[in-house]
Amino acid sequence: MDPAAKVQLALAIEGLGVDRIETGFPASSASDYEATHLISRQLVKAEFTSFCRAVPSDITTAVSAGGTARHQIQIAATGSDIHLEHKRRISRAEGIREVIGCIEHARSLGISNVSVGIEDASRGPDSLLRELAERSVDAGAHTLVVADTAGALLPGEYGHLISRFRSWVPQSVMIATHCHEDLGLSTANALAGILAGADEVQVTLGGVGERAGNTALEEIAALLAYKQEATGLYSDVNLERMYEVYTLLRDLISLDEPRNKAIFGTYAFSTAAGMHQQGMLRNPATYEFVQPSHFGRERGMFIGRHSGTGVLRRLLSELQIEVDDHALQDLYRSHIVNRKGDCEDMSVVKARLASEFGSATPSPTSITQSGIR
Fold it and tell me: Which of 111, 227, 292, 329 is deepest in the core (most CB within 10 A)?
């Protein structure tokens, strides 16, 4: 995205009520520098984060771009021996020393909120992670980001890792989760992390991110909204505008909408199965735990070969058309069984029936709305 697009998206995300927005990597390009500069001057409530390597000049550049007010500097730290040996080719002592020096440099420039993003912490030994955490805090770090960079951990494993970090540093130090979707566990791991004592969850809209993606904002938001009693947690992020902002993101980066993804998938709130539709038409709560309206979505009913005659009879009844069982079977074959291609929206089939029987313009199919649980 160019700087103008990043500003547009950042302001839209701020409107959702998130606490902090990452603007980019100012030292990596003129574009990210300009985006950080512009966003820092237009955000009203949210704080913003600049990503930096453990290189003093990166931090100087980030502060030049975004100033110091409400500005968190996140310094990348190396949290595993495999990364130290094969990617960085430095020792543990060198890896820790460069991070400590950069924390001190950021604080000397007036940054009060320094975050240490511990890459590959999920595969790092406690001896390295604990020393890195304790010395970072002693040097002035305010936040530790515990990254499951390769998406390698199970929820129980990640929760235990977070609890160990929580025991190593004072309660005043924030701990953030950073999870990846490689095993399809980024949301489960993030939830395990906050239940184990993490204060913050790093998320992306739609889970957009490296490889299989990151923890999705909408999934964590749904969990906190619908499972508040079970978790003892809540979020005040705006659910209803979330899909609108996700659509903006997709437009800006030319991203196709996934078909079946939770909350934001094209068919996340749609059904074509006959037995499900029978229940849904009577009360959506039969097959719908998360309500689409809470996320700015609409419920969809599709008719295909898995749909039964019951949904067809419902449409005919709404059109005030009476047919016997034999005629119903004929209509079922012609309008559902023998039609080629994908499922059709219920409104399309209803309109076709109305045309066939010379009925008036069909009204929308009614579905009972139930309350949030």
Answer: 111
Its domain, for residue 274, covers: 270-357
Residue matched to tokens 């079946």: 260
pLDDT digits (tens, 9 = 90+) for 174-194: 999 999 999 999 999 999 999
Residue 115 lies in a domain: yes
Spatial distance between the Cα atoms of 74 and 46, rounded to a whole number of angstroms:
16
Q: Find all residues with CB under 8 Å of 343, minimum gap 6, and list them.
A: 272, 302, 303, 304, 307
Residue 346 token pair = 């219920």
Q: Is the dihedral of CA 192, 257, 341, 349 positive or negative?
A: positive
Residues 331 and 206 in one domain: no
Q: What is the CATH number of the domain that holds 247?
A: 3.20.20.70
User: Is the confidence at residue 262, as pLDDT, over 90?
Assistant: yes
Interior angle at CA 367, CA 363 and CA 370, nearest 5: 145
For residues 115-147, one letter each, b for 16 or more C-beta atoms within 10 angstroms of the residue's C-beta and e for the rest, the string is bbbbbbbbbbeeebbbebbebbbebbbbbbbbb
| Longest CA pairwise span in the chain (Å) | 84
pTM score of the predicted model: 0.88
pLDDT in tens, 105-123: 999 999 999 999 999 999 9
Q: Are 175 and 274 part of one and the same domain?
A: no
